[in-house]
Amino acid sequence: MINIFGFGKKKDKELEEVISQIKVDLSNNYKDNAVENIKKLRELIDLRSMDGAMKKEELEEYRQLLEGFEMDVRSFKRTY
User: Fold this and answer.
1) Which of 18, 20, 45, 67 lies 20 to 30 A from 10 at CA?
2) What is the pTM of this model?
3) pLDDT tens track of the chain, all 80 residues?
4) Cα separation, 71 vs 48, whole angstroms
């Protein structure tokens, strides 16, 4: 996808879909699903890192987001 206006970042659609799902899982207290999707996100980030498909800065942003999700899950308490 080419951005003809020169603003905004091109996002990795697959990573963004997993991130959206993790956010939904956490907001709905679905810890098990969130843990599975966090694992999937970690694997995708590792793949992007190995194949050189993304810039270092972009990878670092995704890694920081991943760390945040992992911290959220660690402190996650079920309410039922």
Assistant:
1) 67
2) 0.81
3) 343 444 445 678 999 999 999 999 999 989 999 999 999 999 999 999 999 888 999 999 999 999 999 999 988 765 55
4) 22
Separation CA 62–CA 64 (nearest Å): 5
For the record, the structure tokens of 9 come out as 């970042």
Own/partner pairs for 38-45, CB < 8 Å, 24+ apart?
Answer: 38/66, 38/69, 38/70, 38/73, 41/15, 41/66, 41/69, 42/66, 44/12, 44/14, 44/15, 44/18, 45/15
Phi-psi region of 3 (alpha: psi -120 to 50; beta: other; left: phi over 0): beta
C-alpha dist (Å) from residue 26 to 19, 20, 46, 47, 66: 11, 10, 22, 24, 13
